[in-house]
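Students often ask why inverse folding is considered easier than folding. One informal answer: many sequences map to the same fold, so there is more than one right answer. In these notes we will look at a single instance of the problem. The structure comes first.
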């Protein structure tokens, strides 16, 4: 029997994140964007709730609730403001990368010093094209844009390893089109000393799966917000004697947008379930990110179109939601890098309906 109901603990997690998003993020999203930062009091409140450690092992100071809990939190925070959602999870995917490569010992060794500083940030960069270079124990590379204004620990993930850098990290502020609440910077690293390095393709696949699931959750949360706002607008805006949502062409578009959000969420939750169950999740996470990224383009553009000319005005949130969705789609190499990882399984064998059913019926 298919059961997508959350247990009591996960339902409480989702409710807490939803309330925080509705009360603290959504009303102030424009202010966060203008200031390119969040108030320290808000950061402290989120840290006290424990959003950033929701999926860490309990023995490492986390809640031990797994990838699905992280997804539930991230979706809801991102619905309020995805830039703020990133800023309120300053360790992000770095923690799961360290756990994948070095276990709790690596987490304690490399993140514990950061945890004592409330303003510390860690960032993960995926070297999808092998453009970061090593010269002995020195690492060099760059990223044209990252949604951050500070990096204390940089984790550079490749398809076969992970390298950590804490020195020689140069950030230059750039305008940024989206996710401004988290900051916007160009990153350069020139022969920075490598603090730690691992080579393990299996661990790299696991770390990347976690990172993609977290990114897909940001996309799904903001997609949900854009689709829902444009739907409500269409129910209130009257043309030719009835709400525009009741005109067939627009009604069908609203249905398609709803379906796009739901499809992306189902793939995302399956990928999170696989991670929590210890099952292979590389292809599932890649597919979830592809679906979320592609559907985000469809939903962002059409949310603006439903509002017509008003959709481009700052009086309404959809222009920001479009920018946020496009910016999120650039992270971790985007959909094309995910396709590289989904490709082998897609061409090697036909779809296994039994395996798919097993994964989706025993999930959340």
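Output (designed amino acids):
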């Amino acid at each position: 029997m298919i059961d997508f109901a959350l247990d009591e603990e996960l339902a409480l997690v989702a409710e807490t994140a939803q309330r925080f998003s509705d009360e603290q993020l959504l009303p102030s999203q424009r202010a966060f964007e203008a200031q390119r930062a969040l108030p320290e009091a808000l950061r402290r409140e989120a840290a006290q709730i424990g959003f950033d450690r929701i999926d860490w092992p309990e023995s490492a100071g986390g809640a031990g609730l797994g990838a699905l809990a992280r997804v539930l939190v991230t979706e809801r925070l991102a619905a309020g403001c995805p830039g703020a959602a990133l800023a309120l999870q300053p360790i992000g995917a770095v923690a799961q990368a360290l756990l994948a490569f070095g276990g709790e010992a690596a987490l304690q060794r490399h993140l514990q010093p950061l945890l004592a500083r409330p303003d510390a940030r860690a960032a993960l960069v995926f070297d999808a094209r092998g453009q970061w270079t090593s010269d002995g124990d020195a690492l060099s590379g760059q990223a044209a844009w990252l949604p951050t204004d500070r990096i204390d620990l940089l984790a550079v993930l490749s398809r076969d390893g992970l390298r950590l850098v804490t020195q020689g990290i140069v950030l230059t502020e750039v305008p940024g089109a989206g996710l401004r609440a988290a900051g916007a910077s160009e990153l350069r690293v020139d022969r920075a000393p490598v603090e730690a390095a691992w080579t393990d393709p299996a661990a790299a696949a696991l770390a990347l799966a976690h990172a993609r699931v977290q990114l897909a959750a940001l996309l799904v949360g903001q997609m949900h917000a854009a689709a829902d706002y444009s739907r409500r607008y269409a129910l209130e805006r009257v043309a030719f004697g009835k709400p525009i949502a009741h005109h067939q062409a627009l009604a069908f578009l609203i249905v398609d947008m709803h379906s796009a959000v739901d499809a992306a969420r189902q793939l995302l939750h399956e990928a999170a379930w696989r991670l929590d169950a210890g099952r292979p999740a590389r292809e599932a996470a890649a597919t979830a990110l592809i679906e979320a990224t592609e559907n985000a383009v469809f939903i962002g553009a059409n949310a603006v179109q439903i509002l017509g000319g008003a959709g481009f005005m700052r009086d309404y949130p959809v222009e920001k939601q479009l920018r946020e969705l496009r910016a999120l789609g650039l992270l971790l190499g985007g959909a094309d890098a995910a396709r590289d990882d989904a490709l082998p399984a897609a061409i090697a064998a036909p779809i296994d309906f039994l395996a798919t059913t097993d994964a989706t019926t025993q999930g959340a």
